[in-house]
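During the second year of the project, the team shifted from modelling isolated chains to modelling whole assemblies. The rationale, set out in the original proposal, was that interfaces cannot be judged from single-chain predictions alone. As a representative example for this report, we include one of the complexes processed in the last quarter. Its constituent sequences, exactly as entered into the pipeline, are reproduced here:
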Amino acid sequence: MSATGNGARTGTTNFFVAGVGGQGALLASDIIAEAGMEADLDVKKSEIHGMAQRAGSVFSHVRWGRNKVDAPLFSDGEADFLLSFEIVEALRWQPVLKKGGIAIVNTQKIYPVAVAIGNQSYPEDGVLEAEFAAGGQKLISLNADDIARELGNVRVANSVIVGVLSRFLDVSPSVWRDVLARRVPARALDVNLEAFYRGRELSADV
Amino acid sequence: MKQLLSGNEAVALGAYLGGAAVASAYPGTPSSEITPAFARFGGPYAEWATNEKVALEVAIGAAYEGARAFTAMKHIGLNVAADPLFSCSYTGINGGLVVVTADDVGIYSSQNEQDNRHMARAAKVPLLEPSDSQECMEFMRLAFEISERFDTPVLLRTTTRVSHSKGIVEYDPELRTPPAVNGFKIDISKFVIMPAMARKRHVFVEERTRALKEYGETSSLNRIEWGDSSIGVITSGVSYQHAKEALPDASFLKLGLSWPLPPGLVETFVKRVDKVVFVEEVDPFLESEVRLMGLDVSSHHFIGKEAFTLLGEYSAGLIRSSLAKFPELGIDCEKPTDHGTSVSLPDRPPVLCPGCSHRAVFYTLNRLKAIVYGDIGCYTLGVFPPLNATHACLCMGASITNNFGGEKAAQFGERADGRPRVSVIGDSTFLHAGIVGLINAAYNQGNTKILILDNQTTAMTGHQDHAATGKTLMGASQKPLDIARLVQACGVEDVKVLDPFDLRTFRREVKAALGRPGPSVIVATHPCVFVDPRVKGRQAICIDPEKCSDCGVCLKFGCPGVYHANGKAAIEQSVCNGCGMCVQFCPTDAAGTQKAGKGAKTLAISGGGER
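Output from the structure prediction step:
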């Protein structure tokens, strides 16, 4: 039996999505999961919600594959993609990403209360790049908040990130479009699509 | 039809398709989404009940009347509802009745990690454990049929990982059992559960358990998946999914009806495999049941909790590493490579939201050096720095009763710390279980000081309505319950209603109440930022760096919007919703609602200097 059990054998793709409560990370993970379903894959998605209202760490596991996906979770070193909406959260969850995996990181900094009140410090600039290089992983970092603000709505940063991811997946743009149309408010669809395509174009260069 | 649904949504769908007419629940993580989802799918009636005991009794009433009904609650909620559950096991039902218990394995949002499978065995009711969303829908549907066929309430147990995970659910929306009400059937020997009747019903209950064991032998809920016969896994719930991933070649006995167990099926399975491995989170429930069967195998035949932890959630990786300790199983557990930073990262625990009025309450209690008996809700977060103003928190309603009990004990000796004691309880929690403690404190001549934090919603579980919000789950308007008048009716005359955001008045009144004899209640009223319509129109606060003297006052109440940079306080504009608490504190009027740095005057909401 392989060390990673069934997942590696059956070709399941694992996504880990992390962020800070209120950033839309969980919606992004919903969109990825639904796109997988629309593409006729089996999908499992798992997250915990309850205690964290705003400003706490949030994270979600998404798995999809052509064969049946059993467990809703995967272990450290098994994620093919790590999407993080914030720098500290990317570093916190780096162990989930496999060697050779892809990290897509929004370089937005959100100071936790412990940093704000001076009890703990925020990692210095450059740590993100150095750590993912040391892990043998590909890092795509961008300030999705800035791009979203440019487009006129800071809340569409998550669609930028999903757009970056989409380039690496064998799911047609029309599927992403349908899922976005279903999951975002009608009045915000155009700006979300714009954000998605901005992200998708960005990753064409990497 | 195919939909990506959470376990909770799928349970609701199963109830809808199964013809449930009535749903009654009190919110509790991880169960809260079930009841509103039932209403969204088109369930005829759903409500937020005052607490879990009330909810179950409402559902039992509907079932007595011949309708299919259900309730859903978190694991701890079933402690509150145990009274009706245990006796309803004896009376049986008329229409189908399902009790959903969502156990918080991993303790993500609870006080303990109790395993409610024991409740099924103790109450002698059948237990169903779905493994994923598809099964949540199917098992819920089937649960109503089992309930009616065996004249019993059915316990359907999920865990957080099943409740909150999403998976694809396939169903035919046309195949719905229409809700029906058959009417109450008078039968005092069954529904009036006095001792003479109960003794006879106990005979029925034991006979029912025997019949359920037989049913489990052939039911589609239980199945054997033959694989390699060297390892046979006995499992249920989400553990099945993890075990399938960890041991894809093994044989499996997957139990969907996990109490009572089918003895024949278990024996067949156990005897045809070389080793039986029990994979179940928390307690050795299946393991102890199977071991108690006294099957003719050596004790080395079984591997259970000697390999696996009693704590927290399992995963495929954990299952493999736990079994690697047994060389005879031949399981390697080479871990995939991973890399983590050695740089120390700041923690990001859940915090009170920006603009939360609880922050004002705990800041005040911190300044008054109070020892605080907290309760269950967002406000438990008052325990963390820099507020440090919660010192005990036990269960729903205990803030009042614990404080009162301590006070009675303190009559027989001095409290050396000289600090005042205060109970803090939310609006929904007060209605759930606080009222009875308040009546007790008033009746027994207490001196108890109580703050009811009325944020006009059940916030922590996702902003559900309750009797004092003026709205029902089905969306109807309803005259809101008046908490202050209710408190008076319980026997406490000393009641004040105050907005904690008016910090000076609030602190003065709390201090005054602490000095008065007799019980007193302050209803601290301010809507949660999620339900307050005023929040949307408010501008974020700015700190004028020219005026900021870096005194640090605004950093002392733990607002996630305030941070310190370049020797000055600053406010993260994307986070701030303009509550103005920092404006009230700022001694140099640096915090205000106008954009800083443009030479414009800052606009203070009230005079600074409150410290």
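The longest helix of chain A spans residues 25-38. Chain A touches chain B through 71 residues (CB under 8 Å).
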